[in-house]
Here is the input.
Amino acid sequence: MSLLDVSDLEAGYETGQILFGVDFEIEEGEAVGLLGRNGAGKTTTMRAIMGADLPRIIGGSIRYRDTELLETASYDRADLGISFVPEERQLFPRLTVAENIHIAASSADDPLPAEEMFDLFPELDAMRDRHAKNMSGGEQQMLAIARALVSNPELMLLDEPCEGLAPQIVERLEDVVARINEERGVTVLIVEQNVATAMSIADRHYILDEGRLVEEVTTDRLREDDELRQTHLGV
Amino acid sequence: MSAATLASTPDELPSVPWLIAGLALLAVVIVTLAVRPGLFISNLVGGLVYGMILMMIALGLSLILGLLGVVNFAHGALFMIGAYGAYQVVALFELPFWVALIAVPIGVGLIGVLMEVTVLRRLYGEDPLIGLLATFGIELMLEEATRAQWGGTPLSFDPPAVLRASVQVGFLEIATTRLFTAAVGAVVVVGLFLLMYRTDFGLSIRAGLQDQQMAEFLGIDIPKRFTIVFFLGTAIAGLSGVLRGAEVGMDLGMGMDFVILAFVVIVVGGLGSIFGSVVSALLIGVAVFVTPVMLRAVTTVTGLEWLYVSGIGGLMPFLVMIGVLLVRPRGLFGEEGLLE
Here is the structure.
């Protein structure tokens, strides 16, 4: 049985339907990319998995192991072992670095020690008492990943973690996320506009186009098939 | 550039008008102390105690407004029910005041929870105006229910003997009810501070204030936290009602009077700041009580009778609010953009 099984998912906003029957599965321990152009429905899919207030779910199902997520409160999904690094990070701006990490740890059943997060990101160690709003974009992203990891999740969802960051930070984060997957065995689902980042982390990818799943490809094929990338991703 | 020039930025030195205003205030205080020392000090104490009551109501209101985004107009009615509840327990059930002090806030908190679960829960995320109208409706219902239960005439009950006494502090005699109110207020504010800033529960509330959705993504049961916060906020309103009832009695207008003043306290102190509400409530409490005495002293000394404005005390909260908002629209200690 797969870890996450999204089937025939339809969802949208007041302005209109975005997802028109999305199907995909993720096995335990995998790292999977969810790719597509702007507006293809990537973030909508992520938010549907996490149970955000919006999008509104129109139909379909999202199963996590034996649990139907669409019938589970958003705050109970975290307890199942799912953690989330949202687009724009959504740190608590007026909590300190240490508090941002502690709050995620304190609401988890079996958290990792906070110190492990500071070992992973020594930059954060030096700014434990700084408010999240006073950090650079790269530091904020590290904190967002640390906050998602400290709860010791089985599945980590990352929504464009490298957007707008300097190349050397991007490289660093790619390496950390790949290690979270390989060394800790955390299953990763990553949404990226930046195909290179997705390829460096994930082994296979689902491609969304206009709210429908159009391709399932391995990283090797994605790298080699210029036409595929051009058609669906525009790169 | 030397350190001295760096330090003398305009932010750090009071400007001339501020200096003049400060000196004028100081002069008036000195004049008042010279002319009517006893009245000044006793009104100062009275103002601080009144400020403590305002503070407790404002803290509950501010907590609910910050987390739930609901302007709970019914907060005043819950304060009033706290006072009438104490009357019920002490005068009608003839139970000790201390029973009322514990049981009434819990009862009022439960009424608050009932309100939250049945009405307000449906309004989160809606236009704040809808919450305001709904709670205004609840305020009116509770007020009429109070009239039906206890009648329209003002009531009072006898507090226990220990709270009817007074203690001598220097040349000043202070009623023990006032000291008790001040002490309970201090316990509430310290307790609330410790809860919010020293516990995981408080951390989760502060996180929820900043980004509710993300707090839920981390596994925090926000709806349950809302209910607990509502209980706390309204129970504190009930507690202040009991204290106010013991000091001056109760009437049907007290809820509306105090809820409006509590809003003023929040606006002046800055939404989201416990410290701001405390400072602002004490400031406003003192302004209400001390301004008339000061003006009276000034007219006595100068002979300018027109300087004395009768009823100036009741105007002070609004004058303070206008003054603060003109200078600092987010309030004294408000965090930028909390309600935006």
Notes: Residues 35 and 207 of chain A are 5 Å apart (CA to CA).
